[in-house]
Design goal:
This protein is largely without helices or strands. The chain is built from one helix and no strands. The chain is globular.
Length: 68
């Protein structure tokens, strides 16, 4: 990443960081809702398509809650 924090993630990022959730099955459903409990930190969400090198539009909504 460049100094502004934007850019492509390099291969070493994926070697140093394991996925929290790696979905192996794809669905033709338009809506997918998942609930995850995560430790505080920074996370990267990477949408993907079934076929590699295919672009698609994604709408992503993230709701957060603290247990304070």
């Amino acid at each position: 990443m460049n100094s502004a924090g934007h850019g492509r993630l390099q291969q070493d990022f994926f070697q140093r960081n394991r996925p929290v959730k790696a979905e192996k099955t794809y669905s033709s459903e338009q809506d997918l809702i998942e609930l995850h409990s995560l430790e505080p930190g920074e996370y990267v969400i990477i949408p993907s398509t079934y076929e590699p090198n295919i672009t698609a539009d994604f709408a992503l909504t993230v709701y957060t809650k603290t247990d304070e």
